[in-house]
Amino acid sequence: MTNGRVGVYPGTFDPVTNGHMDIIDRATRIVDQLVIGVAVNAGKGPLFSLDERVEMLEEEVSRLRNGDGTRIRVRPFSNLLMHFVEEVGATIILRGLRAVSDFEYEFQMAAMNTRLNNGVETVFLMASENHQFIASRFVKEVARLGGDIASFVPGSVKARTVRRLADPDAAGRTWD
Ligand code: ADP
């Protein structure tokens, strides 16, 4: 049996938002196997440890109805994205595009990745209108200032975010 078309959706997912879930849902319509690559990204000083980010994604992915048979896996990675893509046998990198502000960074990254491996294509997806503006960074900021993040993240992610911000040292904040 072949693996079919394998795609990698890389990101920090600190934490996973409804915007990410929208992109994951769309990605499953394009690839036969989706590998969600969770980047260590210690430089970004994540609120959640790598393990926690993976765990939250796994929980949300398991809730997705997966009727079309696309297989979804969540995997952490700390090496070069293109090496990770090659390791899992993917030929597509999926990225979400929000506003124009994402474009320049994404454009450069896609061009660099094409140089590293011309056989891997980057595909950009847009979330639905009501999810497009959501960013993990702002979700954390709103929550930190006491705002309600219920419409931006899944319920269990909201609970974990609020808990973590109330007691940042509780879960042994790791910098991976
Ligand atoms: P990174 O650190 O790589 O930017 P993120 O977790 O912030 O990781 O995002 C992962 C990917 O998901 C990126 O391609 C980002 O543009 C995309 N993304 C995040 N939020 C949204 C959203 N609301 N709509 C569309 N794409 C999104």
Low-confidence stretches: none
Radius of gyration using CA atoms only: 16 Å
Largest sheet: 5 strands, parallel
The helicity comes to 25-40%
By CATH, the superfamily comes out as: HUPs
Provide a short characterization of the protein structure.
The protein has 176 residues and is of the alpha/beta class.
List the helices and strands and how they pair.
Layout: E1 6-11, H1 18-27, E2 33-39, H2 50-63, E3 71-77, H3 81-87, E4 92-96, H4 100-116, E5 121-125, H5 136-144, H6 155-166
Parallel strand pairs: 1-2, 1-4, 2-3, 4-5
Bound molecules: adenosine-5'-diphosphate.
Question: What does it look like?
Answer:
The protein is of the alpha/beta class and 176 residues long. It has one domain (6-167): HUPs (Rossmann fold), CATH 3.40.50.620. Helix content is 39%, strand content 17%. The protein has a 5-stranded parallel β-sheet with strand order 3-2-1-4-5, sandwiched between helices. Helix 1 links the parallel strand 1 and strand 2. The radius of gyration is 16 Å and the shape is globular. The N and C termini lie far apart (36 Å). 30% of the residues are buried. The mean pLDDT is 91.
